[in-house]
Amino acid sequence: GTLEKPGDTDAFEFEARAGETLVLDFAAKSIGSKIARGELVLLDQSGRIVAQNSGFDGGDPLLTHTSAKSGRFTVRVSDRMAAGSKDHFYRLTIGALPFVTGVFPLGVSANATNAVQLRGHNLGSRSFSRIQVKTTDAGEVEAPINAEKFRSRRSFKVIASSAPEA
Question: What is the pLDDT of residue 105?
């Protein structure tokens, strides 16, 4: 979408099922838009605000919501700075998306293959969301997250140490 005029707001309606965790992933800054501070506001079918976000992890908004009952929802998209032009574009993805927000543990053994659990939303079973991190020397090691299986806003690192763990 595009917020073409100052103060523009877009709205999108969608259906949600009870117990389903939906991820509303907003991209603006990350795709080169001039939107300074995007905002997502989620409303239930009676127009009541049930969630909102204007930035996640230092970037664009990310909202997750698990509805207690099935129904129709509306998400409003805006720029908190009320700016607008053809360069104020965005991409909004809504769904039960497998989204990684972190990893655990943050420290692993050096010179080993370590099991690391992904943390986030809609990641499925523990075995599905467990990855292997191979380390050699002590230091930072990037956790290999499969971009075809999982969404994430950034890469995650663990610290490999040769010291004994307590």
Answer: 95
Q: Read off the pTM.
A: 0.86
Instruction: Evaluate whether 3 touches 35 at the Cβ level (below 8 Å).
Output: yes
Which residues lie closer than 8 Å to 10 by C-beta, 6 or more apart?
A: 1, 3, 76, 77, 78
**Is 58 a residue whose pLDDT tops 80?**
no
CA atoms within 13 A on the CB side of 5: 4
**Per-residue pLDDT tens for 144-156?**
999 999 999 999 9
Under 8 Å CB-to-CB from 75, ≥6 apart: which residues?
Answer: 11, 12, 14, 24, 40, 41, 42, 43, 63, 92, 94
Alpha-carbon distance of 105 to 159, in angstroms, equals 9
Q: Are strands 151-152 and 99-104 parallel, antiparallel or unpaired?
A: parallel
